[in-house]
Write a structure and sequence with these properties.
single chain, 373 residues, alpha/beta, Rossmann fold, 2 domains, 7-stranded parallel β-sheet, 6-stranded parallel β-sheet, 14 helices, globular
């Protein structure tokens, strides 16, 4: 059986790329088709594979401004010749699910999310104050066309796998399709507690891309005047604005490697996730290191936290609500065994076993006896 893997783009090692890494281990002979690839941006295990890029790779200024070519992405993903492959597996948060499998081939899509910025999160990216009215109007027109394309090409997928119940509901709402829920993998072999774990962390930690929907600004305002240390890991187009508004309590660390990130998890009191996430790997990586999470209730983040046992959930997207949740940490005690057990429910081994079984069910037409939404 010949298998092809399709991924939106390879520009960094985030949650989607960790799913792709598991796919490359399950299907070691499968080539990777992707819109564009920045060499050296992902782990060597992926870099060593046969990576085939689209015409987007050759466009002017793509290394800095590839997102500006979004209107061309549907044509680029459809340009891949997937004839000769019996199984296509797409890892999609943008257009990868629109890849055309050959007639008679299976197409399984692991959907991180339907495109947020053209469906229900448009204002988080292009709302008032984020773009000029003229540009916003132009982008709205583009988004309308992309929504139509996105809905129409859902029929190219044999079966959807959603990374959370939240995403499964969005797949049902926007595509009219059922999906199997398989939470993304957490490397519990690497992310482990410090053998000399301190009882209380010295700081709180936020790990995120600095883009509007991550609501980093909400966390900065929540910590203003509290005297508590807040360390921030990440980078992105919103960084200058966030640094300008940051209170004295906040310290920006930029991007860090995995070893440094593990040390930061181990040393923190808790990690914060103030955004509406599709699922959210960061809270579970922290739990694997023996630390709880403070997450926003809406979205997939709440699926990773058992309130009072593995973290705290706050319900209003306001600094006061997040501050109250953070204040409550001082009244709670978390058991490392419980935190590790929660993370291990989504270990890489568990993820790959569930994914392999689901794909087998799809190909034997037994998917409707599996757990799906």
């Amino acid at each position: 059986m010949r298998v092809a893997l399709v991924h939106d783009w390879l520009t960094g090692m985030r949650g989607g790329e960790k799913v792709l890494l598991s796919l490359t281990r399950l299907f070691p002979e499968a080539p990777i088709f992707t819109l564009l690839h920045f060499p050296g941006s992902v782990v060597a295990e992926i870099e060593a594979r046969g990576i085939r890029t689209s015409f987007i790779q050759r466009l002017p200024g793509v290394s800095r401004h590839y997102r500006r070519y979004l209107p061309l992405f549907p044509a680029a993903i459809a340009s891949f010749d997937l004839h000769g492959f019996d199984l296509v597996i797409s890892s999609s948060h943008c257009v990868a699910k629109g890849a055309r499998a050959a007639g008679g081939a299976f197409h399984v899509c692991y959907c991180h999310t339907p495109m947020r910025y053209v469906w229900d999160r448009f204002d988080d990216y292009f709302g008032p104050g984020r773009t000029s009215p003229l540009l916003r109007a132009a982008i709205r027109h583009i988004a309308e066309a992309l929504r139509a394309w996105d809905a129409a090409t859902a029929s190219r997928v044999t079966h959807f796998i959603a990374n959370s119940r939240h995403v499964a509901r969005r797949i049902r709402r926007f595509y009219g399709r059922a999906s199997t829920v398989i939470h993304p993998p957490v490397d519990t072999d690497f992310f482990t507690p410090d053998p000399a774990q301190r009882c209380d962390g010295e700081y709180d930690l936020l790990v995120a891309a600095f883009v509007p929907y991550k609501r980093v600004d909400l966390a900065l305002e929540a910590y203003r005047g509290t005297g508590r240390r807040l360390l921030l890991v990440g980078a992105g187009p919103d960084e200058r604005r966030l640094r300008a508004m940051a209170p004295p309590e906040a310290r920006f660390l930029g991007r860090v490697d995995d070893e440094k990130l593990r040390d930061l998890y181990r040393g923190c009191r808790a990690v914060l996730q103030p955004s509406v996430e599709d699922f959210g790997i960061v809270p579970l990586e922290a739990m694997a290191c023996g630390r709880p999470a403070v997450v926003f209730a809406e979205g997939g983040g709440g699926e990773s936290v058992i309130p009072g046992k593995t973290g705290v959930v706050f319900h209003a997207a306001e600094p006061e609500s997040l501050r109250a949740a953070v204040d409550s940490l001082s009244r709670l005690r978390f058991n490392i065994v419980d935190l590790r057990a929660r993370a291990e429910e989504s270990s890489r081994q568990v993820f790959e076993s569930r994914l392999r079984r689901c794909i087998s069910d799809v190909m034997t037409n037994d998917i409707f006896s599996s757990n799906h939404c």
